[in-house]
What we know:
four-stranded mixed β-sheet, 30 helices
Amino acid sequence: MPTQTGDKNKPARNSLVLIAEHFLDSLVERFAGGRHEQRNRFILLFLAAAILAFLIIPGQQFRAVSYKVGDIATSDIRATQDYLLEDRPLTDKKRAEAESVVPFVYDYNVSAATELTQRFEKGLALVREAMAQEEGPDIKSLRDVVSKSLAVELSPVELGALLAVRSDRALLLEISRITGQLYSQRIVVGRQVFASDLEHGILIVDADSRQVIATGNSTPYIGLAEARGLLERARISQGGGQQTLTTVKEILARMLKPNLTFNREATDEKRRQARETVRPVLFQLKQGEMIVRVGERVTAEQALKLQKIAEARKGMNRVVGGVGIYGLVLVLFYLPYRFARKNIRKFNPSNKDLLLLAFITICSFLLLKTVYIVSTVMGGIFPSIDTANYFYLFPFAVGAILVRIILNSEVALVHTAICAPLFGIMFNNSLPVVIYSLLGGVVGAHGVRQCKDRGTIYKAGMKVSVANLALAISFQIVGDSLFSMQSLYCILFALAGGVINAAFVTGIIPILEGLFHYTTDIKLLELANLNSPILRELMIRAPGTYHHSVLVGNMVESAAEAINANPLLARVAAYYHDVGKISKPLYFIENVAGGENRHDKLSPNMSALILIAHVKEGVELAREHRLGLPIIDIIRQSHGTSLITFFYDKAKKLAGEGKVVDEREFRYPGPKPQTREAGLVLLADCVEAASRTLTDPTPARIQGLVQKIINKVFIDGQLDECELTLKNLHGIAKSFNRILGAIYHHRIDYPEPAYKEKIAGGKKTLEDSHREPPEAPSDQHQEPEKSGGEDLKRLGITH
């Protein structure tokens, strides 16, 4: 159940982060559990293999050789098969030539004169309609409406001229006559631009029917400015006064638009069609044909052939190569996994572990792909360093170290054996990369086998550096290039590579702990802090349980060291195994301190339910505080399926003779301890609780009690499912005897009290001794008090 202290100390987080965490938690729980465990494993296998194949295939070769114009060929290069390759530069040149001769498309509006006359007629109709209104026309509104109809902005003077027109019909006849004369010619926007297009060649198309009207460069035309000049010189004699008709001509000049306009979309479409009609220019290479000889300077034609062959091979092999890599990844994943499951006892990863392994593997390949791209760029910046030497810097061992810290060495070894060949494939089938990554991963995983703090990771990184150095020197000797400047770079990079691995692991491990809820030894050290919120609340609300948990922690840590179990996990799990008692602390005897026993008012069945419930509540608290699955499992298994004897016997007495009490109602739900650490917590919990009943805890009595409790637990079958042997139980008993003997050791009586007591004669009591100042000696010649050394001798402690 939630606790107040936990809520107060819980950091406020962004809602998006909480949503992301909830999504990841649900994804991990859905994949790790459920009814379709086998199906989920196959889905993960095929999906992870597909992602890795995608990461491996597109990469360029690690030591790929490419020639540019002017380079000197280092070997003979022949065509390995027949090739029919496209000459892309020549193809592009021919397509550009075909595009350049495409004529410009112009749209011709044959009804331009009619449209202009109709717009003017509509404007006059609006004027007459406004004048016919009884209240008279609204000049401003009328001007806006007429301007919109004519598609030109009218001034008040021009609107007045339209109002002063005497005969609309006569005026429209004059306008039709003049515009018909003007639009009998082809009017363009600008003479100079059109003259240039005309020299190139134009195609005149009817704007409505899209039929070709004319082609070529002999089309007569006039400019828009010239057409407006002709309109101004034209004579209109009907429809109104001279001033009115002059203003009307000015309006018509502004309404005049070209009837021959450039159509860019149609021109671009013609050009695209012209490009598509040009077929690619191909050249043929026969198998065995010499492309370039060793020592020759590569020409432009040879460089083009080499580039086209590389592109053709890349395109042909990508699909086939992708399928091959995908199948290889599947085989490398499945067969070693099956072998390890059948032959390695500690290799038994759960679905959650497999999800973690897939995540680490994919991220490792993605990281190496990224640093490879960076190293390629660095090769251009520092040409004196061979690009192939940068792989000594790559963090190949990161995955193996992470798997060893979070899971175990067996899984880390199998993971390294699977990834090393795939690393070699990704780097151009490089055998040195396979060896380098394999040995680096093994050494790194071995270096963190007892990772108790962050410093251990960097110590492991230094061990990886030493292994990298040995391999780098060996590779240089094999390549007969030990005494060269490149060897110095390899040595420096190899030494730095181990530290880089450690740095990556240090940054990644907290992320994996949070995402997948794993509890590493580093996390256990943080949980072992007795000032953690949940332990502080346990100390305040249930001090007896807190003290009991600390003592159990000391006992299991000593016993775990004796039987080579994980002492840190055992101690931390012991601290938290009874946190469920926080909710009802006064129902547990260690927290009552001589007060009222609340179980006296409850039935034995209810009392047993309350005691059993603290396990479930402890699991819920552990999940809320993210203590990790190992701690949660030990909390659930800390009481196994043991019998609550006191309330079971009480229930049988209350039931009377002849009535049967169901023993299952007085047993914890379990499961029984599954690991040695869980078995240790169960034994230490029982022994420590029973040791409090000893009235005279002599070493012999403690030894007898420990042996009795362990035998009782063993006979009850609580240790049947964990890996504790009889030899382990003897070591555990000896360790418990030593710890309890130190706690309950006998003390000799002091010869005199530490403080003087006050009685009726005026002597001080213990309670008042701190309040009165010390009396000054009445006689200066009084015998001095005995020294501290003599007091020690009185206690039996001599120098």
